[in-house]
Design goal:
Length: 289
């Protein structure tokens, strides 16, 4: 499918994309570029990259596709650096968890290339980061959301969709507004809460005692607090309006639960928990098979 693709950010997302395409026989050469030479060397040693480039002119020479797998706060800077060297055939996609800001950066820095720009968000990940965390099956059976620009050509959208499909992903499409609103609720808020809980516990005088007794419930709730801090800083700031709305709704939920506790209203708490348990189990049965 591709003779040459360029990965900017050869960590979990970018590295897994490269490995998946290699496993599918869909790419001949994968070139890596990024801010950390050590990370790129590690990715090459792990078989993720075939070549390392130190400047965009070399990296993008003859490239069929550029994947921006960097924190969303870096998208604008990276697009600006790459823009002068994009060739007519080069597709540009990304793996960012927010989309409105990626749209804004594309319109600012990739004005002459918009027909080949197809923003995307793979709904897959792990709490670990870096090249060593990447694996070829990361996207197998997972959803990838495409949010094409109005200017994105049908051919560009089809080719980017096919690339993610070759990784084993199920591809769907959304508007950037709907995307950011949905993921503020089901992804960004849970991460914010997990980080907040762990930060609260570690700041207490008896933190060591608390951590020593924490078990599977704490582990499951806080697993995502082990995620990449820079990446999640950028996501939260970029999507802060939608995230604030979700946080306010959650605070109202906590206030209601607090009131039930103050009242000692066991039946109301049980009913509340039963509704949540049923909804969670129904979700798991439908979507986690």
């Amino acid at each position: 499918m591709f003779k040459r693709i360029v990965i900017c950010g050869a960590g979990l997302i970018g590295g897994s994309f490269a490995l998946a395409l290699k496993a599918a026989g869909a790419v001949e050469t994968v070139v890596g570029i990024g801010r950390s030479t050590a990370t790129l060397e590690e990715a090459r040693a792990l078989g993720i990259l075939d070549e390392i480039a130190t400047d965009w002119a070399v990296a993008l020479k003859g490239a069929d596709l550029l994947l921006l797998a960097v924190p969303v706060g870096q998208m604008g800077v990276v697009m600006a650096a790459a823009a002068p060297y994009l060739e007519a055939q080069t597709l540009v996609t990304d793996g960012g968890s927010t989309k409105a800001d990626v749209f804004e950066a594309a319109y600012t820095y990739l004005k002459s290339h918009l027909g080949n720009v197809v923003p995307a968000h793979p709904i897959a990940g792990a709490e670990k980061s870096g090249p060593a965390a990447a694996f070829a099956d990361l996207y197998q059976g997972k959803r990838v959301v495409l949010t094409p620009l109005p200017e994105s050509s049908a051919e560009a959208v089809a080719r980017v969709e096919a690339a993610w499909a070759r990784c084993g992903a199920q591809v769907c499409r959304m508007s950037p507004h709907d995307h950011d609103r949905v993921f503020a609720a089901v992804s960004h808020l849970p991460h914010l809460l997990a980080f907040g809980l762990v930060h609260d516990i570690q700041g207490r005088a008896n933190a060591e005692q608390l951590f020593s007794f924490a078990a599977s419930g704490f582990r499951d709730f806080t697993r995502i607090a082990g995620s990449h801090p820079e990446m999640w800083r950028d996501i939260c700031v970029a999507n802060r309006q939608a995230l604030l709305a979700e946080l306010d709704a959650y605070l109202a939920e906590l206030a209601y639960l607090r009131a039930l506790l103050v009242q000692g209203d066991g039946p109301a708490l049980e009913n509340h928990f039963a509704q949540a348990s049923a909804a969670r189990n129904a979700w798991a049965e439908k979507y986690l098979r």
